[in-house]
Specification:
The protein has 640 residues and is an alpha+beta fold. It has four domains: 151 residues, Alpha Horseshoe (Serine Threonine Protein Phosphatase 5, Tetratricopeptide repeat); 255 residues, Neuraminidase, CATH 2.120.10; 89 residues, Immunoglobulin-like (Sandwich); 116 residues, OmpA-like domain (60s Ribosomal Protein L30, Chain: A, 2-Layer Sandwich). It is built from eleven helices and 34 strands. 23% of the residues lie in helices and 29% in strands.
Length: 640
């Protein structure tokens, strides 16, 4: 994560000229040799040469161990290097020598205590700083800001089981990380493709890709095709199926503002040339940090356009039937604040979002947060990810793999290959997304096996709510991610074909399961038939259950789209019970479907119905699985 400086070396330098107030330490009595080393150390520190500065300030202390300013500067340099324990020890050495002379340094001392995760001690130190008489207003505001952050951190630790959480980020290795900066990772749903931004030669941002093979990442290479250019491409997100890439392009010739959102798709020749997403998503203002929902129907991003709640807000745009993106909607005050919100990431469950904010209460600067999508579509239950994921530094983008526990982010930790590297770690359980399973497959013409571009609709059976609608690619291939613990209906409608409808009882399946469901569509022609698998009745009853409505409405749509078609609705039972009663029950069930269609403006002359009881089994009536198949409602085309 990108470092933000908290302890200014200048603060330390200024003390040399400060007056003395009943102090034990006398700056004017410092050994001359120590002072020479000290001044050299300051020059190195101001140039960012911290290792050299530490060596020189140590020489100064060797020459004069009571050189308080050298201890303070040593602490400040270690703070810049994020060597918090060494920083804290140096401050404490200075405090012990002269408490009055060093009291102004209780604020940077407190900040470094927080950097080391010692928030209760940090809170005590900042309270000591705020108790100093007549500190200037700017210092008081800075202290009060830190006090709020430390109080938040102390309370967070009390309310969450963070003590037993082991935060151990692992560098993903030399196949991906180099002496250049690597950041903004993005992975496909299978976890086997990693796309990231690399700042080549320290100035040009390009996209690189690595693939996981035999549990190892292949050596990253520049993405094939026309996506990389001499301009700066960055802040990218690859779709869960690996076929789309959305990213930020700044100062492109075709740009509408300083930074715009661009789109590229995977073709047989590689990634297509970037295409500006255009209005109304892009404006004359700043748009960046895009992320696609798993079904590729929603585009989340950050923008500083007018009309928001603060500097940068998170927005969502929804894909229209014509393939263009609709007018962006602000996610509202539950997410956006008077500060900046950015780097949205939508998990594969399509219900959990991670993002950064410096306007919500946190540890200081930009923190990472998680929000959950509610049944009404609003993002709520916003929660800070807590220490040690969040620190006193500015945190950057974070993504979570489909397994819900493997997280990736960029950081400049001690084992970096060069500046920012990509790391992975295991996410704490209480801030993980919903467990998911995912389904991939292909929609094709049953008669000639050719792929059919189609829309695959997913409905949660219990509520009847349409969760998502996924468009297949040109070969009819699709991928859908599903929240765990629910039963689903898959539906496919395409003009000229009987619709596909199938129920899948996934509520008891294990997380991270993978399924392949290929869908063959039957062309509309005489004698073509389809089982209406989402028509439901209670045992020995013929009243339609509410869960049947979505399926019945699809039959209405089919008949309205094909006005010349006449159909037969047939009812079937298993062999359990009296044959005559089964025939009557199946006929009443078929009639209930026809009655619904007539009630929804389908001419009765286009509809016939018949009950067959158990006379036309399609499964073995000696098994429960077979009997379930035999209990069905069918639609058969009589004429076109």
């Amino acid at each position: 994560m990108i470092t933000r400086c908290f302890i200014l070396i200048a603060w330390c330098i200024a003390v040399l000229a400060a007056p003395s107030f009943a102090q034990q330490y006398r700056p004017g009595k410092v050994h001359k040799k120590a002072l020479n080393f000290y001044n050299l150390a300051l020059d190195k520190a101001q140039n960012g040469e911290y290792e050299a500065a530490i060596r020189l300030v140590n020489l100064a202390l060797d020459a004069d161990r009571r050189f308080v300013d050298a201890w303070l500067t040593r602490a400040g340099i270690y703070g810049e290097m994020k060597y918090y324990d060494s920083c804290i020890a140096s401050y404490e050495q200075a405090f012990a020598m002269d408490a009055a002379y060093t009291e102004d340094y209780k604020l940077p001392y407190a900040i470094n205590l927080a950097g080391a995760g010692r928030f209760e001690a940090a809170l005590e130190a900042v309270n000591q700083f705020l108790s100093i008489p007549e500190i200037n207003e700017a210092s008081r505001r800075a202290g009060e800001y830190r006090k709020r952050s430390f109080e938040f951190a102390v309370n967070y630790q009390k309310q969450h089981e963070v003590q037993n959480y082991v935060f151990a980020p692992a560098n993903v290795g030399d196949s991906i990380n180099t002496g250049d900066l690597e950041y903004y990772p993005s992975v496909t749903i299978d976890g086997n493709t990693l796309v990231f931004t690399r700042r080549v030669g320290g100035h040009n941002e390009d996209f690189f890709v690595s693939h996981r093979k035999n549990d190892q990442w292949t050596r990253a290479k520049s993405m094939d095709g026309d996506i990389n250019s001499n301009f700066n491409e960055g802040a990218q997100n690859i779709s869960q199926d690996g076929e789309w890439l959305v990213f930020t392009g700044c100062n492109f010739p075709e740009g509408l503002g300083s930074c715009d959102l661009f789109f590229s798709s995977l073709t047989k020749k590689g990634w297509s040339a970037p295409e500006n997403i255009g209005e109304p998503v892009n404006t004359e203002f700043w748009e960046s940090a895009p992320c696609l929902s798993p079904d590729k129907r929603e585009l989340y991003f950050s923008s500083n356009r007018p009309g928001g709640y603060g500097g940068k807000d998170i927005y969502v745009s929804r894909r229209l039937p014509n393939g263009r993106w609709g007018a962006p909607e602000n996610l509202g005050p539950g997410i956006n604040t008077a500060g900046d919100e950015s780097c949205p990431f939508i998990h594969a469950d399509n219900q959990t979002m991670y993002f950064t904010s410096n306007g919500l209460t946190g540890y200081g600067g930009d923190d990472l947060f998680v929000a959950r999508k509610q049944a009404n579509g609003k993002w709520e239950d916003v929660e800070n990810l807590g220490y040690p994921i969040n620190t006193i530094e500015n945190e950057g983008s974070l993504i979570v793999a489909a397994d819900g526990k493997t997280a990736y982010y960029a950081s400049d930790r001690a084992d970096t290959r060069g500046g920012l590297d990509i790391y992975t770690f295991e996410l704490r359980e209480d801030i993980r997304p919903n467990k998911t399973l995912w389904v991939r497959g292909r929609v094709f013409d049953r008669s000639n096996k050719e792929g059919l571009p189609s829309a695959v609709e997913l409905i949660e059976i219990g509520s009847g709510q349409t969760l998502m609608k996924v468009q297949t690619n040109e070969n009819g291939e699709y991928l859908i991610t599903l929240p765990l613990g629910k039963d689903y209906a898959f539906n496919v409608n395409r003009k000229g074909y009987l619709f596909y409808s199938e129920s899948f009882p996934f509520s008891h399946q294990t997380p991270d399961s993978t399924y392949t469901i290929d869908i063959g569509l039957q062309p509309i022609e005489a004698n073509a038939s389809v089982v209406l698998k989402n028509i439901f009745f209670d045992v020995n009853r013929f009243e339609l259950k509410p869960q049947s409505i979505a399926e019945l409405n699809r039959v209405v749509t089919l008949l309205n789209d094909n006005p010349g078609v006449t159909v037969m609705i047939s009812g079937h039972t298993d062999s359990t019970g009296n044959a005559q009663e089964n025939t009557k029950l199946s006929e009443n069930r078929a009639k209930a479907v026809v009655d619904y269609l007539v009630d929804h403006q389908i001419a009765a002359g286009r509809l016939q119905y018949k009950g067959f009881g158990a006379s036309e089994p399609v499964g073995d009536n000696n098994t429960e699985e077979g009997r379930a198949k035999n209990r069905r409602t069918e639609l058969t085309i009589l004429s076109k």
